[in-house]
Specification:
The complex is a heterodimer of chains A (660) and B (147). Chain A is α+β, with helices and mostly antiparallel strands. Chain A is 55% helix and 17% strand. Chain A has helices at 3-12, 17-38, 44-65, 67-84, 100-139, 144-159, 199-202, 220-228, 261-305, 310-325, 368-375, 390-397, 432-499, 507-532, 535-540, 542-552, 569-590, 624-635; strands spanning 163-170, 173-181, 192-194, 233-241, 244-253, 329-335, 340-348, 360-362, 379-381, 402-410, 413-422, 557-560, 595-602, 605-612, 639-643, 651-657. In chain A, the strands form three sheets. A six-stranded antiparallel β-sheet of chain A has the order 8-7-6-11-10-9, with helices on both faces. In chain A, strands 3-2-1-5-4 form a five-stranded antiparallel β-sheet. Chain A has a five-stranded mixed β-sheet with strand order 12-13-14-16-15. In chain A, helix 2 (17-38) runs parallel beside helix 4, helix 9 packs antiparallel against helix 10 (310-325) and helix 16 (542-552) packs parallel to helix 17 (569-590). Chain A is rod-shaped, with a radius of gyration of 50 Å. Chain B has 147 residues and is an alpha/beta fold. Chain B is built from five helices and seven strands, in the order E-H-E-H-E-E-E-H-E-H-E-H. Chain B has helices spanning 24-36, 48-58, 74-81, 100-109, 123-146, and strands at 16-20, 40-45, 62-66, 68-69, 72-73, 91-96, 114-117. The chains are: A alpha+beta (660), B alpha/beta (147).
Chain lengths: 660, 147
């Protein structure tokens, strides 16, 4: 710190009024008392003592009141010394000491140097203390407003300015954050000034020095406002956060004021401190935003992993992206094969234009849906001027300004898109597409999973249907082939038996036993065929087939089956096997004395109900027999549930949709 | 050819029979078997349409209908032929290679007079069913008259 710096520091730093008063009082009274006290003394030694005492006085005043009263005391002491210790006031000629002027000059130089040194040290200490106070606020993550207010106050008190204001760049505006004023009359800080475009960004870091000293160097509109409030000179410094201009600190004076170097230092130190604090805050906010996004992604990913219906995933994605991007409306559309797009999910924050799910619109025109369909890439419209298309025009009319969207690619083909629209044209961050994109990947997985599942279910149903058809064919071949021939043979043998003359010995008997044997083979074959496929089912349908099951059941059955029309064959077969397996289980494990069977068609669903009064406690995971049934029922898009509390019997309920 | 209504002191002259079965070898076998037992098999039909035509032409007393008529359903044909309450209608008897155990519900739901497993096809079995059918028809008429 230069001597000059110290000198000007002394000029600007504000000290408490009482201390100032004491210092000024001392600076007048001190030299007077010293001179009076030294008047009777004439020895050179005592005069040296006087100068030493005067120096101590100056130092004391410098500590208490700064440079100005100290220098005042110094000057007064020298004047008094020269005046009172030279004729005509001094009659004692012997007391005049010719070499005296040298010590007086030495005294003056020492006094000035010491008082300035002390004052500048005190200024520096005060600055450091102020910086530490504000840094402590930063370290304690004090509310931003508190930090800004404190910084403005400290700068004001240290720099000698009448007014200090803190502003933040918000796009093309300057927003007031905090202000400090020496007088009660506040220069408005809590306002907005439209900044001169490009000003903030035109300031390179090298130029972010304090702007000197007339206020036309700062933002023109702000300067005019300041002038109107009596500010005649000002200095400003840019606050840089994460390498970009973040805001502005302005110190102004009601006088023509040349900000001293210490004021510049003060402004830049505090600007640096605030910049660092804001960088930290921004990176913290960035981390928080990232964490928020990760959580939202995880919620959606969990839905996908749980195999939630695609509709649930769609709704969740529109909601999560809407909240993350802080937009007012989001939607998900699907590109249909007929050249339209349909809304599959939408979300809106509060009131506003709504996008109804199911709404269809042909592609074409200037809108995001069409752009994405052409490019299969993310797209944005920074303004809705000149957009065409019913949906986007509706949004534009409702006050929406901008939109962004990203495609949903399922296994390499364009499936749909997620779109967001904002009322505030500044709200769409540059990375909005990327943030939507991380969700569209999840949507693609969900869609792909659902499609795979549907294909798997369909193929399972096809496999089962093919197997059933094969069994039916085998049964039929047995019936039409071997069984018929056996029947014919039996009749022929019986004819032969009848034709045997009575006197032919054992021949008739042998033929009869052959016929009986054939009948036995036929019975075995029928048994086999019944196991392969029940003919009563294919010929008569579910109702007679269930009656047949009930008749053959070991456990008595109470059957409640109203007249059921013929149903699709896969449904009849599945229903037959479900009831058949349930009856077999009841007979084997339940020890029941009665099984109730109900089958009814309501709407488009066949509902089956089997309940026994047995021991219950059956394996809820369904035995291996029932696992096959579960496959069968689910392949048809149906559901099956078994309830078997110990001691309360076992009941089974299955719903089979009639049309897949 | 004899009229349907003027039958048949059982035993003397056999019934006029029509066999409806898509399985030709069995139909021939059945024909031989029944004729051997003294019945008159007037004809054999392989399809429903043929059966309806022959019933109109030959006016059999009894029609033996195979339950599994190839791609057609013998039960439907039986339904068609056994017009209840019509005196001129032939007695319809279902036959099948299945055991009655397997198709009991289908037989019960059919208006046919009875069922004979193919392996047990015989003149006696047919006559028994015809007799009980006639008794039932008479009872039905009586009941109707009482009404």
């Amino acid at each position: 710190m230069s001597v000059l710096d110290g000198l000007t520091s002394a000029w600007v730093r504000q000290r408490p009024i009482a201390l100032q008063a004491v210092a000024w009082l001392l600076s007048v009274i001190g030299p007077a008392l010293l001179t009076l006290a030294a008047q009777p003394l004439h020895s050179a030694l005592l005069q040296g003592g006087f100068l030493f005492a005067a120096l101590l006085l100056v130092i004391a005043i410098a500590v208490v009141g700064g440079v100005r009263p100290a220098l005042t005391a110094l000057v007064l002491t020298i004047v008094a010394r020269v005046f009172f210790f030279t004729p005509p006031f001094i009659t004692n000629r012997a007391a005049i000491m010719p070499p005296n002027m040298i010590s007086v000059i030495g005294f003056a130089i020492a006094g000035v140097a010491v008082s300035m040194l002390i004052a500048s040290l005190a200024q520096l200490a005060a600055e450091q203390a102020a910086l530490r106070r504000v840094a402590t606020l930063v370290a304690h993550s004090a509310p931003a407003q508190e930090l800004f207010t404190a910084a403005a106050r400290e700068v004001g008190q240290l720099s000698g300015a009448d007014y200090v204001g803190l502003y933040r760049y918000e796009e093309d505006e300057l927003a007031g954050l905090a202000a400090w004023s020496r007088t009660a009359r506040h220069f408005p800080a809590a306002g907005r000034w439209s900044a001169v475009l490009g000003f903030a960004r035109s300031l390179t870091p090298a130029r972010r020095r304090v702007q000197k000293p007339n206020i036309s160097g700062i933002h023109q509109p702000l300067a005019e406002d300041a002038r109107a409030h009596g500010v005649r000179s000002a200095a400003s410094v840019q606050i840089m956060a994460t390498g970009r201009p973040w805001g502005l600190m302005l110190a102004g004076s009601t006088m023509k004021w040349a900000p001293p170097p210490c004021a510049e230092r003060c402004l830049t130190s505090f600007a640096d401190l605030l910049g660092a604090a804001m960088s930290g805050a921004e990176s913290r906010a960035g981390i928080a935003r990232l964490a928020e996004e990760q959580m939202a992604l995880r919620r959606v990913a969990t839905l996908v992993a749980r195999g939630a219906p695609p509709e649930a995933v769609f709704t969740a994605v529109t909601q999560e992206t809407g909240q993350l991007l802080q937009v007012q409306i989001t939607s998900m559309i699907r590109y249909e094969s007929d050249g339209t797009s349909s809304i599959v999910a939408s979300w809106g924050a509060g009131a506003g234009a709504s996008l109804p799910v199911g709404d269809r619109e042909p592609l074409g025109g200037r809108n995001l849906v069409t752009i994405i369909s052409e490019t299969s890439s993310p797209a944005r419209l920074d303004h809705y001027d000149g957009v065409t298309g019913a949906r986007v025009e509706r949004l534009a009319k409702a006050g929406f300004h901008a939109g962004v969207g990203a495609p949903i690619m399922v296994q390499g083909r364009l499936w749909g898109a997620v779109l967001a629209a904002s009322i505030d044209k500044q709200a769409l961050s540059p990375d909005a597409e990327a943030r939507i994109g991380s969700f569209t990947d999840l949507v693609a997985t969900a869609v792909s999973n659902a499609e795979n599942l549907a294909e798997l279910t369909a193929s399972r149903a096809r496999v089962l249907a093919a197997a059933d058809e094969a069994r039916r064919q085998i049964e039929r071949d047995l019936h039409d082939g071997a069984q018929q021939r056996l029947v014919s043979l039996t009749l022929a043998v019986r004819d032969a038996e009848a034709a045997v003359p009575p006197a032919s010995g054992p021949l008739a008997g042998e033929l009869a036993s052959v016929a009986d044997g054939l009948a036995g083979v036929l019975d075995d074959l029928r048994e086999l065929a019944r196991g392969i496929h029940p003919t009563v089912l294919s010929d008569g349908g579910l109702a007679p087939a269930l009656k047949s099951l009930a008749r053959r059941s070991i456990v008595p059955v109470e059957l409640d089956v109203p007249a059921i029309e013929r149903l699709p064959e896969p449904v009849e077969v599945a229903a037959y096997y479900v009831i058949s397996e349930a009856l077999t289980n009841a007979a084997k494990h339940s020890n029941a004395s009665l099984v109730q069977i109900g089958a009814d068609v309501a709407g488009n669903v066949l509902h089956l109900h089997v309940a026994d009064n047995g021991a219950g406690g059956a394996d809820p995971a369904l035995g291996s027999g029932l696992t096959g049934l579960k496959d069968r029922v689910e392949a048809l898009g149906g559901t099956i549930a078994v309830s078997s509390p110990a001691g309360a019997g076992t009941s089974l309920d299955a719903d089979l949709p009639l049309a897949a | 050819m004899r009229g349907a209504g003027t039958c048949c002191n059982a035993g003397d002259v056999g019934f006029g029979l029509l066999v409806v079965d898509d399985n030709r070898s069995f139909a021939d076998c059945a024909r031989a078997h029944l004729e051997r037992q003294g019945e008159r098999v007037l004809g054999v039909a392989g399809t429903s349409a043929e059966a309806i035509k022959l019933v109109a032409e030959l006016r059999p007393d009894v029609v033996l209908v195979d339950m599994a008529l190839g791609d057609e359903c013998g039960l439907d044909l039986a339904q068609l032929l056994a017009q209840p309450g019509c005196a001129e209608a032939p007695v319809v008897i279902l036959i099948s290679a299945y055991s009655p155990y397997d198709v009991a519900e289908l037989i019960a739901a059919s208006p046919a007079a009875g069922f004979v497993p193919k392996s047990e096809l015989s003149s006696d079995a047919i006559r028994q069913i015809v007799a009980s059918s006639r008794r039932a028809a008479a009872g039905g008429r009586l009941a109707w008259n009482n009404h």
